[in-house]
Design goal:
Blueprint (H helix, E strand, L loop, with lengths): L3 E10 L6 H19 L3 E9 L3 H10 L3 H18 L6 E4 L3 H17 L2 E11 L4 E3 L17 E10 L4 H13 L4 E2 L4 H9 L5 E2 L1 E2 L7 E2 L2 E6 L1 H6 L1 H4 L8 H6 L5 E7 L3 H15 L6 E5 L2 E3 L2 E2 L10 H10 L4 H11 L6 E3 L1 H31 L21 H16 L3 H22 L1 H4 L5 H25 L4 H10 L41 H11 L38 H5 L3 E11 L7 E6 L4 E6 L7 H4 L3 E5 L5 E3 L2 E3 L2 E2 L1 E2 L6 E2 L14
Parallel strand pairs: 1-2, 1-12, 2-3, 7-13, 12-13, 14-16
Antiparallel strand pairs: 4-5, 4-6, 6-8, 9-11, 10-11, 14-15, 17-18, 17-20, 18-19, 20-23, 21-22, 24-25
Helix pairs in contact: 2-3, 5-10, 12-13, 13-15, 13-17, 14-15, 15-17, 17-18
The structure holds 5'-O-[(L-methionyl)-sulphamoyl]adenosine.
């Protein structure tokens, strides 16, 4: 395997504003770059801007400014996006830079001198927005087959590249066959192979119809075709054609060279680009990964529809909630398997952040660290499984973590981000379950030695899972994982560790202490509009805070929270008939939101979804639970209790629980049950 790793985004057209599509490729490449650095590779991560072409020329003239003035005014916005996304790129190239212009002229000349570029005459259909020529046969309903817009007939003198050369085509087809990952995902391979086999015509690589481009050396009426210009950025940014330096280091035979692009520009990257390289006698990239496209709430994103997702605004909102850019990065890579199309909506993103980050990961982090502080004086215990059995569930112990880590590595290296994240989540979910089932808060109360060993093993195991998760999720959420890492008592940065090696990097060292509080929660829960509206309604004293409730139950008795059910209607010996029991309407509920009642250490105010409506329930569970732990929990609600006020706040039901106020546990279910289901 190569010790260098060169990864690139497409260079972005400056006549567009930065949007979610640009953010997507950048985040994916950044994740790969960070992961490969952790593996000890020497990484070059390149991105940049594509600044030539007829569209830019048209926009600039419409604005009444020079082309150069226009590109200089818009290119910085793409650089800003990189910093907002926390991209760790090592290079940024603009196609208007001299180093790039010289490189393009050079490669053009090399191909011209070899006879692979020649001068001829061109007549065909041209699509201005796509800057592409089409044959009559290729047109779809007489329109551009790519974008569906009108095309115009164009005849001009042009330089041509010998794309039709059988020797080059064979070479490319062989390369595709011998390198199964060259076109990724592999499902896209056939479309490229059949395009090559359909018979390639020589490609026009110069234009005389506009001037905003790189002139053909020695024939300045022509400018070099934008795609030959743009694709060469992958070389020019490394210093090509100068021998040595980054170019020699990252662009060599056998080196890891990965171009990440959107599916719409695969042909340019998987056919034209390798053909240029073959003709110029240069090594080919190892992999071209074409990702899918985002639609916006089910619709194609477009300026005219006004639904373009502005990544600056998304991150700004997440920053306001304390979630930051990492929530966006996580959503982009988790929501959709890389390679497939996906749908973006704010609700989907907030849902993902709340359920995965605030609930699952946030809970594990919060509970583990707090309990280590509370029960073990802040010292992270090193689990010792020799003196205590391993307790179910399983994905939290070293051999299993190693297995998951290997799966994760293979998935990330294939750029299967969503799968890799799900692999990490197996540990996170099981660690949460371990805490739920082993109840460290109860173990901490026990005087038995076996319980104190168990307490240490449970919290030590949870800590190892947290540590392993922080490292494995670091490439995706660098800022927040550094924060967790620090709270686990590390004085180094994950970024500076070369820890993705098959060791047991998740082990906590003997005597390691967590960072003393107060601590910031890495992923505060984002209040959805629905919860906000419900809270506002409940504050106004409206009874029903949620959906309308056809057939919703009527509250009947007093919610003294939490108290054992009283056996109303009991007969001799305290026994009741089934009919009496059936009078109690028990429902499955899901806690949507929870916060402490001010000035009370016991009461927590919750919004609980009971299927037909959302109830505000006040429970005396604040000594045993932190509000953050409650959100997302499935609980049992006594739904037909008469509403009552606790410290002036109305409670519309009660949760079933058992135990003393300090150690009390809510009743729940072994597996997920939908809110509203009757409990019998
Ligand atoms: N300038 C060319 C690339 C030249 S690379 C040598 C270009 N630029 S672009 O700005 O139009 O597109 C950049 C990338 O954004 C492409 O990979 C494209 O697929 C991607 N996306 C544009 N809209 C998108 C979505 N709605 N969703 C995901 N990615 C999308 O093409």
């Amino acid at each position: 395997m190569s010790d260098t790793f060169y990864i690139t985004t497409p260079i972005y057209y400056v006549n567009d504003v930065p949007h979610i599509g640009h953010a997507y490729t950048t985040v994916a490449c950044d994740t790969m770059a960070r992961y490969m650095r952790m593996r000890g590779k020497d990484v070059f991560f390149l991105t940049g801007t594509d600044e030539h072409g007829q569209k830019v020329e048209k926009t600039a003239s419409a604005k009444g400014i020079s082309n150069k003035e226009f590109v200089d005014s818009v290119a910085p916005r793409f650089k800003e996006l990189l910093s907002v996304l926390n991209a760790s790129n090592t290079g940024f190239i603009r196609t208007t830079e001299t180093r790039h212009i010289e490189a393009v002229k050079h490669i053009f000349k090399v191909l011209l001198d070899k006879g692979d570029i020649y001068k001829g005459e061109y007549e065909d259909w041209y699509c201005v927005p796509c800057e592409s020529f089409w044959t009559t046969l290729q047109l779809k309903d007489e329109k551009c087959p790519d974008c569906g817009r009108a095309v115009e007939k164009l005849k001009e003198e042009s330089y041509f590249f010998r794309l039709s050369k059988p020797e080059y085509q064979e070479k490319l087809l062989r390369h595709i066959e011998e390198n199964p990952e060259f076109i990724s995902p592999t499902s896209r391979k056939n479309e490229i192979v059949s395009f090559i086999n359909s018979g390639l015509r020589d490609l026009s690589v110069s234009r005389t119809s506009f001037t905003w481009g790189i002139p053909v050396p020695g024939d300045e009426r022509h400018v070099i075709y934008v795609w030959l210009d743009a694709l060469t950025n992958y070389l020019s940014a490394l210093g090509y054609p100068a021998e040595g330096g980054d170019y020699a280091k990252y662009w060599r035979e056998g080196a890891d060279i990965v171009h990440v692009i959107g599916k719409d520009i695969l042909r340019f990257h998987a056919v034209y680009w390798p053909m240029f390289l073959i003709a110029a006698g240069l090594p080919l990239p190892k992999r071209i990964f074409a990702h899918g496209w985002w639609t916006i709430a089910g619709e194609k994103m477009s300026k005219s529809k006004g639904n373009v997702v502005d990544p600056f605004a998304v991150v700004e909102e997440l920053d306001r909630h304390g979630v930051g850019v990492d929530g966006f990065r996580y959503f982009l890579l988790r929501e959709v398997p890389f390679g497939l199309d996906g749908d973006y909506s704010r609700d989907a993103m907030v849902g993902r952040i709340n359920s995965d980050l605030a609930n699952d990961l946030g809970n594990l982090h919060f509970r583990t660290i707090n309990m280590i502080e509370k029960y073990l004086g802040g010292e992270i215990p090193v689990p010792n499984y020799d003196i205590d059995e391993k307790i179910l569930p399983f994905n939290v112990y070293e051999p299993e973590i190693l297995g998951l880590f290997r799966a994760y590595k293979a998935q990330i290296e294939k750029m299967s981000f969503s799968e890799a994240i799900q692999t990490v989540w197996k540990m996170i979910s099981d660690a949460n379950r371990l805490i739920d089932t082993q109840a460290p808060w109860a173990l901490a109360k026990s005087d038995l030695e076996k319980d104190s060993i168990r307490l240490k093993n449970v919290l030590g195991t949870a800590c190892q899972v947290l540590k392993a998760s922080a490292v494995m999720l670091y490439p995706i959420m660098p800022e927040k994982m550094e924060m967790i890492w620090k709270q686990l008592g590390h004085s180094t940065l994950i970024a500076n560790e070369r820890i993705i090696v098959e060791s047991t990097f998740w082990r906590c060292a003997e005597g390691q202490r967590i960072m003393p509080g107060p601590r910031v929660a890495p992923f505060p829960r984002i209040e959805t509009e629905r919860i906000k509206a419900m809270k506002a309604a409940s504050e106004k004293g409206e009874k029903k805070v949620g959906r309308d409730a056809p057939g919703a139950t009527k509250a009947q008795s007093t919610p003294t929270l939490p108290s054992p059910l009283e056996g109303g209607g009991s007969e001799g010996g305290g026994l009741i008939k089934i009919d009496d029991f059936m009078k109690v309407d028990l429902r499955v509920g899901k806690v949507l939101d929870a916060e402490r009642v001010p000035k009370s250490d016991k009461l927590i105010k919750m919004l609980v979804d009971i299927g037909t409506e959302v109830r505000q329930i006040v429970g005396g569970i604040g000594k045993a639970y932190h509000p953050q732990e409650l959100v997302g929990k499935t609980v049992v609600v006594v739904a037909n209790l008469k509403p009552a006020k606790l410290m002036g706040i109305e409670s519309q039901g009660m949760l079933l629980a058992a135990g003393d106020p300090d150690t009390l546990k809510l009743a729940g279910f072994e597996a997920d049950v939908s809110p509203g289901t009757k409990v019998k």
